[in-house]
């Protein structure tokens, strides 16, 4: 990555003109005493918090839609790239790091959530976290919710535009399946809604990654129904206790269980062995849950004493790892600087159960790697019923579950980082015959630059984009390119894994 001094010397005249253009807007430059704290406030991966990491020319903390419009027009007229950041959870830091002169357009102050229970909708600004979305819905209704992620500090702008994956997906699909309107700023600085942007662009930003096409200002979401109380539970098994047999059976049944039940498998290394935690959420009471599970999956050993009933809003805190009894106001709090570690993540889709002998090999690799863990997230239910072309998100019927691989470490130093990343890549390579193929499918929101990148300043970006585009979007990639060509032919909205127009 370029250092700030390298970026700053790259095009000083254009940078000076840009800063003059936005001089009356909330802007932080490296000379400002608050620059570092604003920059670090939403850096979620310590790999991109180093002195050697490229720094922006400026950070614009938009407080009004007009600030977004001005940032786009000023950046475009001076050929300066923008990186759009809402929650800062991009695993590869692409929302706040670049190899070319860039500014960060920070959306985190645009946090309004306007819930209308009467028509079952809400307008959510891009800087609102999913925790704030959940909190504001619960303030208006105990029987409404929205399908989104379990990490409550995710920013709505990026999370929803990449798909929005969560524990209501088997009942209601993804976030993008429940978005009915949007407000954006296009490449010309215009504010558009669904009607004025057109159906093709509205289709593209719901799962194709909004930052390839425009700046998302707000989403209009459709609320979904939940009972006044849901049931959550966690059941843990180790290898000595028979976890291999249980996870093998989980692969066969998790996607076929009742759509009201989401049963994640979390695989971690504990005391030099693998522990599998089955974490569940059921849209109903324990009395209805137990027969459903014990009939199809008795190996889990679920007991009434494992189950806890609570309002849906409290379950969002449970899934985020907070103790039972945590005040729901915690959903609205955002730390001034996140507690972060170094990490690298990858993803896979699984279409056939992984055989037991391969599971044993996986356990060995996990134990040797020490710092690696996996989430296995089940499919089925509503995800089987939505066409793969309904939105750009193509990973629908035919999948048993989605894997998230996650390698984290606390030690500083490039050698430690390289060793851990190398090990995760080796693990991923081992998994290749066990997961989807031709293409090997990948989830956009679990950002992974290993699947291919393009340099934003090169001219042959479309061919480069195809290397990752097919893995992320499958047959939807070409339609995304068509939309990109129409709305941003000069490729202003560009980053390492963005959609490129045909002219590039």
Automatic annotation (TrEMBL):
Its cofactor is FAD. This is FAD-binding PCMH-type domain-containing protein. Residues 52-226 form the FAD-binding PCMH-type domain. Coiled coil: none annotated. Keywords: Disulfide bond, FAD, Flavoprotein, Glycoprotein, Signal. Gene3D superfamilies: 3.30.465.10, 3.40.462.20, Uridine Diphospho-n-acetylenolpyruvylglucosamine Reductase, domain 2. Belongs to the oxygen-dependent FAD-linked oxidoreductase family. GO terms for biological process: cannabinoid biosynthetic process. InterPro entries: BBE, FAD-bd_PCMH, FAD-bd_PCMH-like_sf, FAD-bd_PCMH_sub1, FAD-bd_PCMH_sub2, Oxid_FAD_bind_N. GO terms for molecular function: FAD binding; oxidoreductase activity. It holds the Pfam family BBE.
């Amino acid at each position: 990555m370029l250092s700030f001094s390298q970026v700053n010397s790259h095009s000083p005249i254009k940078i000076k003109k840009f800063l003059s253009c936005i001089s009356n807007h909330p802007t932080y430059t490296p000379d400002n005493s608050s620059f570092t704290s604003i920059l670090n406030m939403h850096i979620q991966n310590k790999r991109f918090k180093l002195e050697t990491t490229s720094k922006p020319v400026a950070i614009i903390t938009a407080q009004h839609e007009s600030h977004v419009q001005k940032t786009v027009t000023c950046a475009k007229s001076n050929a300066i790239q923008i990186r759009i950041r809402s929650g800062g959870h991009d695993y590869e830091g692409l929302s706040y790091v670049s190899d070319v002169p860039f500014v960060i357009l920070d959306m985190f102050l645009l946090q309004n959530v306007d819930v209308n229970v009467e028509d079952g909708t809400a307008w959510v600004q891009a800087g609102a976290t999913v925790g704030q979305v959940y909190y504001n819905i619960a303030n208006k209704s105990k029987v409404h919710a929205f399908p989104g992620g379990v990490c409550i500090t995710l920013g709505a702008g990026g999370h929803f535009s990449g798909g929005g994956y969560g524990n209501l997906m088997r009942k209601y699909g993804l976030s993008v399946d429940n978005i009915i309107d949007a407000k954006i700023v296009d490449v010309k600085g215009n504010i558009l809604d669904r009607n004025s942007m057109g159906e093709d662009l509205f289709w593209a930003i719901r799962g194709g990654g909004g930052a390839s096409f425009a700046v998302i200002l707000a989403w209009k979401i459709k609320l979904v129904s939940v009972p006044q109380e849901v049931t959550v539970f966690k059941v843990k098994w180790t290898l000595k206790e028979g976890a291999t047999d249980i996870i093998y059976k989980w692969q066969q049944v998790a996607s076929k269980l009742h759509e009201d039940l989401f049963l994640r498998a979390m695989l971690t290394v504990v005391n030099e062995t693998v522990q599998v935690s089955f974490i569940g959420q059921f849209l109903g009471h324990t009395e209805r849950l137990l027969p459903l599970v014990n009939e199809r999956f008795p190996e889990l050993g679920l007991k009434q004493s494992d189950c806890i009933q609570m309002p849906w809003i409290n379950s969002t805190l449970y899934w985020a790892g907070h103790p039972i009894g945590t005040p729901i106001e915690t959903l609205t709090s955002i730390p001034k600087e996140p507690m972060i570690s170094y990490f690298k993540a990858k993803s896979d889709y699984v279409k056939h159960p992984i055989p037991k002998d391969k599971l044993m090999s996986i356990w060995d690799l996990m134990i040797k790697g020490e710092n690696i863990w996996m989430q296995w997230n089940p499919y089925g239910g509503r995800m089987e019923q939505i066409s793969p072309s309904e939105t750009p998100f193509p990973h629908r019927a035919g999948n048993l579950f989605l894997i998230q691989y996650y390698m984290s470490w606390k030690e500083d130093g490039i050698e430690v980082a390289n060793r851990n990343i190398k090990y995760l890549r080796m693990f991923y390579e081992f998994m290749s015959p066990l997961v989807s193929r031709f293409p090997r499918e990948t989830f956009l929101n679990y950002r992974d630059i290993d699947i291919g990148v393009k340099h934003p300043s090169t001219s042959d970006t479309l061919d480069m984009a195809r290397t990752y585009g097919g893995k992320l979007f499958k047959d939807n990639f070409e339609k995304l390119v068509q939309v990109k060509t129409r709305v941003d032919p000069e490729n202003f909205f560009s980053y390492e894994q963005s959609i490129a127009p045909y002219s590039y």
